[in-house]
UniProtKB/TrEMBL annotation:
This is Esterase-like activity of phytase family protein. PANTHER family: BLR7070 PROTEIN, PHYTASE-LIKE DOMAIN-CONTAINING PROTEIN. Keywords: Signal. It comes from the Bacteria. It comes from Saccharopolyspora terrae. The keyword Signal applies. Residues 120-146 are annotated as: Disordered. Residues 137-146 have a biased composition (Basic and acidic residues). Residues 126-135 have a biased composition (Polar residues). Residues 1-25 form the signal peptide. Residues 65-384 form the Phytase-like domain. Pfam families: Phytase-like.
Amino acid sequence: MNRLAVASGSAALVAALVTTGVALAGDDSDAVELYRTDLPPLATIDGVEISGGAYGSSLFPVPGSPDEYYGITDRGPNVDGPNDVKVEPIPDFTPAIGRFKLVDGKAELESTIPLRAADGTPYSGRLNSEASTGETIVDRDGKPLDPDPNGYDPEGLVALPDGTFWISDEYGPFITHFGADGRAIERVSPFNGGLPAELAHRAPNQGMEGLTVTPDGRTLVGMMQSALQQPDLAVEQDEVTVTRIVTYDLATKATHEHVYLLDDPKDNEGAVSEITALSSTEFVVDERDGDLGPGAHKKLFKIDLTGATDVQGRDVDGKSIEAHVGTKNTADAEKALDEAGIKPVSKDLFLDLDALITEAGVFNHDKIEGVAVRDGGRTVVISNGSDFGIDGVTNDTPPYQLKPKMLPDGTQDDGEFLKIDMTKLNG
């Protein structure tokens, strides 16, 4: 098990960091580096800036480049409004991929690739007309925004050596293949038989949060954010311990499905934000809550699919796996699965991000969403979901006034990247 021992020598190293991304002392001064985006706002509305640096929903190394990464936005700026509505202050926002170079403490945006349909129609962040979440989305004036067949909420990103991309989303869940120009090539989903049918029971806005590809380029591996909202589930969905991993063979289109046990979500309020491949069977999973540290649940786990049961289409005595396990703690959930003949993926702590961030005094974000690895996991880069720097509205009637999302240090949340040299932290 690979753990960050903050109580050991690594604590002194991490504590030496300053917010420029440069460590001041010791031979391991490059073990942790912070890179900030510094991009113009998308808009300024009544004095509140909407950040232009919100590309942290997922992260993937640029193939063939040692210091470049692709990031991606989610569906766009949106906040909770009164009466359970979502307010989108920029209704024509198009989700996009961003290519970043990490250098001298800066995350430099080199290019963007807006997502589009095959005919060139821009994607939007509106509800998808094929797979609604049940939300009502309005603009700042309170006008409802119609669902869109090209509505997409990107969350997982894979960049292939041929220049194309696979991107998963929360609405479907969908996994869509995009060309190098951002045009859609093909899409797989629970609705067209490309993905297991049970994934259509995803909870609203808790779809396929993570996506990666095995190093041999043969298999996509996607991960649901949390438990499925199965029809027979009689408990709170976000407290259920089970979530699912799906593999998709790019050549044969065959799928397999495995169980992942969250780390006591009833207590930790955690869910999955990312999965990234170490090998054809081993992966790093980002499990987090929505709180700021210290004391937040933000951990990376190393998992192994070897020997895990394929549960696609499977139930337990007529009940869904989610209903069978319910809100049991992780240890009891594993026992319940064992009694049913189901083996989940194995799971060990890889890195305690909250401990690292607390000691460093940098990168204290509520949403750590992107994780990329290099060199077999010796280098880890993480990114935050900044919510475009906005966090709700200040009034109950339109036109809605936006509230900035502020960090404990008094600054507005924006996109950042943190590079971690695991060999030095654990050395």
